[in-house]
Automatic annotation (TrEMBL):
Residue intervals of the Fibronectin type-III domain: 23-117, 121-212, 217-311, 315-412, 417-511, 514-590
Subcellular location: Membrane
Transmembrane domains' residue ranges: none
CDD domains the UniProt entry points to: FN3
The protein's name in its UniProt record: Fibronectin type-III domain-containing protein
Protein topology in the membrane: Single-pass type I membrane protein
Length: 590
């Protein structure tokens, strides 16, 4: 079929132009009176054809949509007047150019105050230099100054504190605003003032101050030991209002308590927690944190002190072992070195093993006093080598054992023989017989026996028996009424062994001797006081219970004049006849 040819589609420019590409330039507004203002501008830089007219928008509320603003059309002219305005009111004005195709973009807002004699708004407000806590502002004088400008009114607020500030500044075209917060967004605007009042302000311009080092340390720094060699540290960032920028790193610093800060280890990280590892056991550490921005370090936090957990201790020092006798040794030691204690020493384990091999299970003796530094170990074998080691204890358990030390007990002496005692005679004298058996442990050749006996708490007699054939001995003529002590021990080349001891209280009998040291004196002419001491020990034959005192005239031996029984060692004899001699025999009853 034949082809269909359509007419070409023409663009805006095909009809002789397009919408303006830019807004009108250099829009200027000044009040003619309190109800009238005059507005002028320049043609758009890119009109895209013949500008056919302009539309001037104005409002007292620039937040309204453009369709709600009041407007006035202007033919191909660059100046217009708007009347019937509200006096002493700030208006916002924007201008739009038209071509035959349509409207172009709107000009930037310009503000004017409907008050005769006040300046128009300053132009080209900008921040020429921005620091951490200051901003240098520059601007151009108002086009229409009205009467002479007497000052500028500078306004600003910060987006964090939501506070508005105002400052009157001298007539100049730059100003350094100081006392600002670092890394904070501010909005700044400016108005000129004459004698007639303050003119319209510039639109607010945003200015963000530069970052600075944080003004406060990290908050809520805490530390917790999570093992013998590790501590978990956590913290919160500095308060947002004092961060002075974006926190890009933290420096965690740690040093043993008691050492200087300059010796601290520094860990740089960008998290708010960290586990410090490879620390010393049971050691106090001082820890602090600081935050940093791209500018540098902020102040450090107040140090916290954390101690790592206990661990098993190192080995005790200077372990020594010496024998006490053939079956006992003394073990002495010193605590582990301070750096190796790894906690509070709560006790020790003393390990004693017979010989140097593994033939016998080692014996363990528990010392539950952390301050103890010695122990006597008993119940060992004579003439035997022992290996001794000591380990310290903390709450975590026992640590390393010390290096073995060797000690040898000396050869032993015989243990106690068995002894029996029999009373053979009680009258007329006391006789006994001792019998003994061979010691169960002689530790070598048994050479004989030793017998020691006598009155208890008195010096004992000693009698030796050579060889092993004698196993008994008879003792005659023991004193009556006293306690005897008998001791029998075996003998080998090392000496006498342990003694077996027997006691015997002999039967009593009447005293065989008189009281001693008899004396008397007259208390009055007819009263005599007689005193005496007990009989000699070998004559007492028991416990003296009382005394009988008899007296009669010496010339008359048949008549007992009086008899006085007493338990004391003195007697008073009354009613003695004067110029007579009396005889006093002293009787004792056991």
């Amino acid at each position: 079929s034949p082809a269909t040819v359509l007419p070409p589609i023409l663009s805006d420019s095909s009809f002789g132009g397009a919408k303006p590409g830019t807004a009108p330039r250099n829009v200027q507004v000044r009040p003619l009176s309190s109800s009238t203002m005059v507005i002028q501008w320049d043609e758009p830089e890119t009109p895209n054809g013949q500008v056919t007219g302009y539309k001037v928008y104005y409002t007292v509320n620039p937040t309204l949509p453009m369709a709600s603003w009041e407007s006035q059309m202007v033919d191909n002219n660059q100046l217009t007047t708007i009347s019937e305005l509200t006096p002493h009111t700030i208006y916002t004005i924007r201008v739009q150019a038209f071509t035959s195709v349509g409207p172009g973009p709107l000009s930037a807002p310009v503000l004017v105050k409907t008050q005769q004699g006040v300046p128009s708004q300053p132009s080209n407000l900008r921040a020429s230099e921005v620091g951490e806590t200051s901003v240098t502002l520059q601007w151009s004088r108002p086009t229409h100054a009205g009467e002479n400008i007497v000052s500028y009114e500078l306004y600003w607020n910060d987006t964090y504190a939501k506070e508005k500030h105002h400052r009157r500044i001298p007539v100049q075209e730059s100003y350094q605003l100081t006392g600002l917060y670092p890394n904070t967004l501010y909005y700044v605007w400016l108005a000129a003032r004459s004698q007639r009042g303050e003119g319209a302000t510039t639109p607010p311009i945003p200015v963000r101050t530069k970052q600075y080092v944080p003004g406060a340390p990290p908050q809520n720094v805490t530390g917790e030991a999570v093992g013998p060699t590790s501590i978990r540290v956590s913290w919160d960032p500095p308060p947002a209002e004092r961060s002075n920028g974006r926190i890009v790193y933290y420096k965690l610093q740690v040093v043993e308590n008691g050492r200087s800060d300059s010796e601290a280890a520094v860990i740089t990280l960008n998290a708010t927690s960290f586990v410090l590892d490879e620390l010393k056991r049971w050691t106090e550490y001082r820890i602090w944190v600081l935050a940093g921005t791209s500018v540098g370090d902020g102040p450090p936090s107040y140090p916290i002190t954390v101690r790592t957990h206990e661990d098993v201790p190192g080995d005790p020092q200077d372990v020594r072992a010496t024998y006490i006798n053939s079956t006992a040794i003394r073990v002495q030691w010193r605590p582990p070195l301070e750096k190796d204690r790894n906690g509070i020493i709560r006790g020790y384990h003393v390990h004693v093993q017979e010989g140097q091999g593994l033939l016998n299970e080692p014996m363990r003796f528990d010392v539950l006093d952390g301050n103890a530094q010695e122990l006597n170990v008993t119940g060992l074998q004579p003439d035997t080598k022992y290996s001794v080691q000591v380990a310290a204890l903390t709450r975590k358990g026992d640590g390393d054992r010390s290096s073995p030390v060797i000690v040898k007990t000396p050869g032993g002496v015989p243990n106690r023989p068995t002894v029996n005692l029999k009373v053979l005679e009680r009258e007329p004298t006391v006789s006994i017989e001792l019998e003994w058996g061979r010691p169960t442990q002689t530790y070598g050749e048994l050479l004989g026996y030793r017998l020691r006996y006598g009155v208890k708490d008195q010096k004992l007699r000693e009698q030796m028996f050579k060889g092993t054939m004698v196993h008994s001995h008879k003792i005659n003529d023991l004193e009556r009424g006293v306690e005897y002590e008998f001791r029998v021990a075996g003998q080998n080349v090392m000496g006498f062994g342990q003694e077996s001891i027997k006691y015997l209280l002999t039967p009593e009998g009447p005293p065989s001797g008189p009281p001693t040291n008899i004396s008397h004196h007259f208390q009055t002419p007819d009263v005599v006081c007689v005193t005496w001491d007990v009989p000699l020990r070998e004559h007492r034959n028991g416990q003296i219970t009382h005394y009988d005192v008899e007296f009669h005239k010496k010339v008359d031996h048949t008549t007992v004049t009086d008899r006085n029984t007493t338990q004391t060692k003195s007697a008073l004899l009354p009613n003695m006849s004067s110029n007579c001699r009396f005889f006093l025999p002293y009787l004792i009853q056991g």
